[in-house]
């Protein structure tokens, strides 16, 4: 009989706009929050992990790209007969209090297993639950418990929904809801994801040296980071201040400053999340983007703490990995987002290479 324990098999249904970012966001949050975990399987829009159930609350509080968190009861081939045979063996008693209401919901990912009739499966699995728990009742509108299945890549994963994360809050933090906006503004959902990839803990100091409209600062502040921002344009700093005030986010400081010469003491920053200027709408002070990034990484190497992370966005054509590695950073991962014909954005994560940093001072 399957029972929920402190450590269990969990599944995370994620948004589908990028194939790799959501999975890295989950793993980054678990690392940042100090949860040990084992990745069991990744499939289209679904990640299975073995982890402490308490991590679900951390994912719910921080994640931008997770939609549903659940504890797994079984997984099998996406075949109706096999699915129902497994469903008959599930004892619902550990998951539903006597007299409680429930519903069964099944999500089909990107047209997976079209031969399977979702409403039929939902109905039959619900019948099996009622047979074993006749005092329970089905409530289609406001159930106390939701049994949730996912059809993806010819597999079926079924379990109890523990949390649902709705994207509305991120939409509400985009134009025209922002107090100040700009053509180069990073969408709130993507900004939150990049903050998570840098793996800050609550109370860590996060820096954005090209803060622009303050998107990264807002998202970092909302999850409990201390934040500090710089921008070379006074109008941008004033705009960041408006957005931070709009969402009641406190900050350590906002300054007009050139990111090539950040006025912070050595090893004072836990992580950096930023979107350096590039493209026709950005201000570069007449410098090339490559020159700006070279100066930025050189400055960042000094102010970052040991093993501190940088997460940034840059044009794929720039080869930011080469720039960073030459200046003492270890490349951790990259993800790519197609924007338009002339721009594919690379989301890159780097870690301060302590060996390289030490050798430079010898």
Describe the structure in your own words.
With 362 residues, the protein is α/β, with parallel strands linked by helices. It folds into two domains: 7-164, 2-Layer Sandwich (VC0802-like), CATH 3.30.2130.30; 173-361, 3-Layer(aba) Sandwich (Rossmann fold), CATH 3.40.50.150. Helix content is 31%, strand content 32%. The chain is built from eleven helices and 15 strands. The chain has an eight-stranded mixed sheet. A seven-stranded mixed sheet has the order 11-10-9-12-13-15-14, sandwiched between helices. Strand 10, helix 8 and strand 11 (253-256) form a beta-alpha-beta unit. Helix 3 (80-89) runs parallel beside helix 4 (118-132) and helix 6 (188-197) packs across helix 7. It is elongated, with a radius of gyration of 23 Å. It starts with 6 loop residues before the first strand and ends with a helix.
List keywords for this structure.
362 residues; alpha/beta; VC0802-like; Rossmann fold; 2 domains; 8-stranded mixed β-sheet; 7-stranded mixed β-sheet; 11 helices; 15 strands; elongated
